[in-house]
Design brief:
The complex is a heterotrimer of chains A (307), B (493) and C (297).
Chain A (H helix, E strand, L loop, with lengths): L1 H12 L1 H19 L17 H4 L17 H32 L4 H10 L6 H12 L5 H10 L13 H26 L3 H9 L4 H25 L7 H6 L8 H4 L2 H9 L5 H29 L7
Helix pairs in contact in A: 4-8, 4-10, 5-8, 10-14
Chain B lengths: L1 H22 L3 E8 L7 H16 L2 E8 H13 L6 E3 L5 H6 L7 H7 L1 H6 L2 H6 L1 E2 L2 E2 L10 E9 H6 L14 E3 L2 H14 L4 E4 L22 E2 L8 E2 L5 H15 L14 H6 L3 E8 L3 H9 L3 E5 L3 E3 L9 E3 L6 H13 L1 H9 L6 E3 L5 E3 L33 H11 L1 E2 L13 H19 L5 H14 L2 H19 L3
Parallel strand pairs in B: 1-2, 1-3, 7-12, 8-11, 13-17
Antiparallel strand pairs in B: 3-14, 4-5, 6-11, 6-12, 6-13, 9-10, 15-16
Helix pairs in contact in B: 13-14, 16-17
Chain C lengths: L2 H33 L3 H7 L11 H6 L3 H34 L6 H13 L4 H11 L7 H4 L7 H14 L2 H9 L4 H12 L1 H17 L2 H6 L9 H17 L17 H35 L1
Helix pairs in contact in C: 1-14, 4-8, 4-11, 4-13, 5-8, 9-10, 11-14, 13-14
């Protein structure tokens, strides 16, 4: 009884806070929650005459196509492994770049920061042309240079799957490090400089400062961004896996992901129930993983947990 | 005085009634794609067309012209969300899919009452071919329904270079030559010797399979096809056929000999762009009356069309871009009247296909259509996919084509070999899981194999293994069962 | 002290950044050069850093209807500015609430926000919601509102920044001085959070500037409302359609001379250029954030 009163009093006292939260919450309600009942499409055999709600139930039959295939293992493995690689590599690189940028004294660092952001602004189609300019068998830079320097036989890059895990990881890092490092940079700029001044007085090396001050302070941000990435671990960047490899069949064993698999399969058929099912599957796995990760984080570092 | 009052009252009544009638005039919305989406002149053409339908039918007409790139998605969204669309085209969406998903309305009764003009215009066999479970849900347009397969389009300047006398071999149409594949092989060898730095053939990934093997991809997919479509309804595996293997071997040889670019699998330029740039000497395409014109316009090179396969009307050809009514329409009768008008009224059909005379196009002294003064391809305000329009035969012939192109087209259709399964559609929703898996396997292998980048025998064997693992057997059985049931209803064999 | 060590770090830092800058810049120069290459030469040789045959045909084509291009630029600019401003306001306010210590229901609110990152109703229901319920189709709002106005990712980032980098003591002190909640937020917390606000403003701004999906789906009739991305997208289609589907010989060869390949690159340049021009102004806020943080902290 007493506790309830206290909560109520707290709520009343925080009315202005709730009011401030309201516009954002209303937007989320309109944009994200109102269409949410549409998830039911994943469990329906959609028929336009009956509408979404009137269409007959399909049970889980819309999901079977995601598992009833010899490729199920390959596409799931590719999606997860690439995402893990991207999370680790892009995070490490972004933090490194952010730390370097924050420590550099010369004004030219602003120029660096602007330029490395630019790849993020280029669409996947254009990136696929650039990659092609480097890798084309007949006229690509790499083959041309190798031919000129070592008289080497041209490599058919788009037919050799062994190179592509590296190419894709590289392209992903190239595209996103400049963008992701901004978040870390902004966080770094918010740190209290007095820690560093004290460390300087104690004679700490730059590396010690990074290891003992910067990284621990960045930890909540790293955990948060990683957890958000874990939530999307079953999704893949369609442009990166479809357009950049030029949809080359020989590369499917290392480029086919859940998204490209679904796209190829449903492109002609335009089946809204089955694409809804794929989305639902990707979301629910991400959801479970995030809940699990969050539980773990709560155990070891309560303040960094998402909720 | 009293009479005057009565007269005024009557006048008022008439006025008010017409205004009510005007306000209540139903609107029909018609949706179709163009390559670019809403053209600049849409409102103008819409007003002119609507004026015609208002006068002749008492119906307002609105157009919803969408970009072909987003057409599938936009139409699915609009049809599913109940937006006002009354008439739409099933291009890309798939006719059988539109029927199965409940987008398309049954038309038999409407046709009988309001669509007599359509019934008189279109070949009854084609309308019959649109029947699914006893009902017509969509109507084909007047266009080239047949397709000539396997046409090697070779630039004349290279033929002259090797001293090939093409002029004396030309068919009556003055632009094409019928020949055996061996002759093509012979020509290619000479072309390669004469111009070793140029590619002999610029292939077209998307249509390569269709132009190298004769078969009917019943149900609009390659998983279970008719290899002898004119005589047999037995579904078999295309990728185990002798013809497929031979075609792949031929391309493998050509590829080994350097006839084809090593980038052919990933090239994003069209064959015609490559030919225009002087990289290649020929391409492989389908043909129909007017093919030479198209090829010349796209590559800027004079060409000869070498026809190596017959002209064929496949099972899905008739229904591939049907006009349908939305099952949720509230003005079905009016929509059918509008369609009827567009199939039969030359003025309306021309307006829809080419725009306004004097603004978008003009008629030359010889009776051809051409761009209006000051207008060209780069600044035109209205253009459509004319083959999509209900009846382009009513609309006049564009300059550069033969005067009798439409008669040629009809004869081309009539003379073609027709699939026994013409009009068969396959509802694959029960085997969608297999379909998705099969499509992925197909995409993984087909281009490498058909363009000769891999040794055919082993690669084809590997592809077939994966196809069977993905459920090809089950898929083909489902298709054969559906085909048998369909044939029984139609009384075929 | 460690001056040597510091110097070494500075040198290595510059070397690393120069390598990264080159990696980012070279492909962009390639795009620029390809956009200035004659189409036929581009097809013949592939992309080159030095054009063999120089041509500005792609840019001439893009700006041949300059009033349309300028209007589309205008719409993109208005959209990006308005969208970003609204987005920053509602994002920071919501984030501030979520970062508030001891707020009853905070856990639930956090979860509700985070949940939207994982689940969405899908394209069809979202479209139905905005067209049937809100009537957004063929209006300017269709460019601004669907999916772009606020996202949970940004909210979470700002929230965590408030929680970690805005010291409680300052907020407490403000209250003791008699400031209201809103005044504390506006006068104390916002200035401290400038770096992160600049960050999300940049992210949202880029998202608005680059978006063509909303226009593609929702603006079928009102093509006069097209943003620059929609317009450029449409130009590529136009030119490809004319070239690939030409079915008549064109006497003035207008079609044959259209730059179908180089225009893709020119369009990428035209799309990126304004961002390059504006970016330095946003960058300033990163610096301001430090000084304020340094003084108050």
């Amino acid at each position: 009884m007493k506790k309830k009163n206290k909560t109520l009093r707290m709520m009343i006292r925080n009315i202005p806070i709730y009011v401030m939260a309201l516009p954002g919450l209303i937007y989320l309600f309109i944009n994200n929650y109102m269409p949410l009942p549409g998830l039911v499409l994943a469990f329906k055999n959609y028929n336009a005459r009956k509408g979404i709600w009137g269409s007959p139930w399909a049970g889980l039959s819309n999901f079977t196509y995601l598992f009833a295939t010899s490729d199920a293992y390959v596409i799931t493995r590719n999606t997860i492994l690439y995402n893990l690689a991207f999370i680790v590599i892009n995070t490490v690189l972004s933090i490194a770049v952010a730390i370097i940028l924050s420590e550099l004294k010369n004004k030219i660092k602003n120029f660096y920061q602007s330029v490395i952001l630019l790849p993020h602004l280029i669409s996947a189609v254009i990136i696929s042309y650039i990659v092609f300019a480097f890798l084309s068998t007949e006229s690509g830079f790499i083959n041309n240079t190798m031919r000129r320097l070592f008289n080497a036989e041209p490599i058919a890059w788009y037919a050799e799957k062994k190179y592509w895990p590296f190419i894709l990881v590289f392209v992903s890092a190239w595209k996103s490090v400049g963008y992701q490092c901004i978040i870390y940079l902004a966080t770094l700029l918010g740190f209290d400089r007095s820690y560093y001044e004290a460390a300087d007085l104690d004679g700490a090396t730059v590396w010690q400062q990074i290891r003992l001050i910067t990284l621990p302070l960045l930890r909540p941000t790293i955990i948060m961004l990683t957890m958000m990435a874990v939530g999307r671990i079953f999704y893949s960047d369609f442009g990166l896996f479809y357009q950049v490899p030029q949809n080359s069949g020989a590369l499917f064993p290392v480029t086919n992901t859940i998204d490209t698999y679904v796209y190829r399969g449903l492109l002609e058929a335009g089946n809204i129930s089955m694409s809804a099912a794929a989305g639902f599957y990707q979301s629910i796995v991400g959801f479970i993983l995030v809940l699990g990760a969050n539980l773990l984080v709560r155990k070891f570092d309560r303040d960094s947990a998402l909720f | 005085m009293k009479n005057l009052v009565i007269a005024i009252l009557c006048l008022l009544m008439v006025l008010s009634m017409t205004s009510i009638a005007f306000a209540d005039m139903p609107t029909v919305v018609m949706a179709y794609p163009t390559w670019t989406g809403r053209p600049a002149g849409e409102d103008r053409i819409q007003a002119r067309l609507s004026a015609i339908t208002e006068e002749k039918l008492g119906v307002k007409l609105e157009m919803e012209i969408l970009d072909y790139g987003s057409w599938n998605q936009s139409m699915t969204l609009m049809l599913a969300s109940g937006e006002k669309i009354d008439i739409f085209n099933t291009l890309g969406l798939g006719y059988s899919n539109c029927v199965n998903k409940g987008y398309a309305l049954e038309l038999d009764e409407l046709l009988a009452n309001y669509g007599q003009g359509i019934l008189e215009t279109i070949n009854p066999a084609y309308i019959e071919a649109c029947r699914i479970d006893g009902q017509v849900f969509g109507l084909p347009q007047q266009r080239d329904i047949a397709q000539g397969k396997g046409a090697y389009v070779i630039a004349t300047k290279y033929l002259d270079e090797i001293g090939y006398d093409w002029k004396s071999k030309l068919d009556a149409d003055g632009e094409s030559i019928y020949c055996e594949l061996d002759e093509i092989k012979d020509i290619f060898a000479k072309l390669h010797d004469a111009e070793p730095s140029k590619f002999v053939l610029c292939p077209n990934k998307g249509t390569q399979l269709n132009n190298t093997v004769f078969f009917d991809d019943i149900g609009n997919d390659y998983f279970g096809v008719l290899m002898d479509p004119a005589n047999s309804l037995t579904v078999s595996n295309l990728f185990e056929s002798e013809d497929f293997l031979n075609a792949c071997k031929m391309f493998y040889d050509w590829n080994q000999m350097g006839y084809i670019s090593k980038d052919a699998l990933t090239d994003s330029n069209t064959p015609q762009q490559n030919m225009k740039a002087g990289l290649g000497m020929s391409t492989l395409a389908a043909y129909k009356p007017g093919t030479k014109m198209e090829q010349v316009a796209q590559s800027g090179l004079d060409v000869v069309v070498f026809k190596t396969m017959g002209v064929f009307t496949k099972s899905a050809a008739v229904t591939s871009m049907n006009w349908a009514l939305n099952s949720n329409t509230d003005v079905a009768e009016e929509a059918m009247k509008v369609l009827n008008l567009l199939y039969t009224d030359a003025e309306a059909a021309t307006l829809l296909a080419w725009g306004e005379e004097g603004v978008d196009y003009k008629v030359t002294d010889d009776g051809f259509l051409t761009y209006a003064d000051g207008i060209d391809a780069s600044n035109q305000q209205y253009s459509t996919l004319n083959f999509l329009m209900p009846n382009q035969y009513l609309t006049g012939v564009w300059e550069g084509n033969p005067k009798d192109i439409y008669e040629q087209t009809e004869k081309f259709n009539d003379d073609s070999v027709k699939s026994l399964a013409m009009g068969f559609t396959f509802d694959n929703s029960a085997v969608m899981a297999e379909y998705t898996a099969l499509t992925n396997v197909y995409n993984e292998y087909i281009n490498q194999i058909i363009l000769g980048f891999v040794e055919p025998e082993s690669a084809i064997a590997e592809m077939n293994n994966k196809l069977y693992a993905a459920g090809l057997e089950r898929y083909m059985n489902a298709k054969q069962d559906a085909l048998n049931a369909w044939a029984a209803v139609k009384g075929i064999k | 002290m460690n001056t040597n060590d510091k110097k070494a770090f500075q040198i290595i830092g510059h070397i690393v950044m120069i390598i990264l800058t080159l990696l980012a810049m070279l492909p962009l120069i390639l795009i620029l050069m390809a956009s200035l290459t004659d189409d036929t030469a581009l097809i013949q040789d592939g992309y080159r850093f030095v054009p063999r045959v120089f041509s500005t045909a792609a840019y001439e084509y893009i700006f041949s209807s300059s009033d349309t291009v300028l209007r589309a630029y205008g719409i993109s600019i208005v959209l990006t500015i308005c969208g970003t401003m609204i987005s920053v306001v509602i994002t920071t306010m919501l984030a501030y609430a979520l970062a508030k210590k001891n707020l009853p229901g905070k856990g639930l609110l956090n979860f509700l926000v985070f949940f939207t990152m994982l689940f969405n109703g899908g394209l069809v229901p979202t479209y139905m919601n905005y067209t049937n319920v809100f009537g957004l189709k063929n209006t300017f709002w269709a460019l601004m509102i669907p999916n772009l106005l606020m996202n949970a990712f940004n909210v979470m980032m700002v929230k965590s920044y408030f929680a970690s980098s805005v010291p409680d003591e300052i907020v407490e002190a403000a209250f003791i001085d008699g400031a209201t909640e809103f005044q504390t937020f506006y006068r104390i917390c916002l200035p401290l959070a400038k770096p992160i606000i600049a960050t999300i403003a940049l992210f949202v701004g880029i998202a608005y500037w680059n978006d063509w999906n909303n226009g593609y789906i929702y603006l079928t009739k009102r093509t006069d409302l097209f943003s620059i991305q929609n317009l450029l997208n449409r130009m590529i289609k136009n030119i490809q359609a004319l070239q690939q589907n030409a079915n008549v010989v064109n006497t003035d060869s207008a079609i044959a001379s259209m730059p179908a390949v180089s225009i893709r690159m020119a369009i990428a340049v035209v799309g990126i250029l304004p961002v390059i021009i504006i970016y330095p102004f946003i960058q300033k806020n990163f610096v301001k954030g430090i000084t304020l943080g340094g003084v108050k902290g």
